[in-house]
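Example record

The entry below shows one chain as it appears in the dataset: sequence first, then structure tokens.
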Amino acid sequence: MTVKLFNPKTIDCGTAFIVHGDYDVEIHSPEIINCGIGLAQYSTKEELEVLLEKSKKHFEEIVALSKKVQGTKPELRKDIIASSAVFAALSVGSNASTVMQFLIDNFPMIGNLLK
């Protein structure tokens, strides 16, 4: 399936568009302003759904992690996130880079700390 977007405008977002790998995406004349990432694409719909469900179960832990990371040096933040228990829980069935990108895309409180 192909998703075509014409003249989309997104402002002040972590990620403008998130799709899974089963879709081809065409973005024509976009206006993406102050967003961390324009387009994030996951390998499969199932992987994205699993990560979304897991993140709902671990939401409070993700919030607590973001608060913990907030008080650390910027150069240490990614390592602290990657070594956390919640990151390990989300990583079951996905690789580490996918989980990190998922957190950045879906949790602005994490994404903003890693800019």
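Notes for this example: The radius of gyration is 15 Å. The beta strands are 2-6, 9-11, 15-20, 24-28, 31-33, 37-42.
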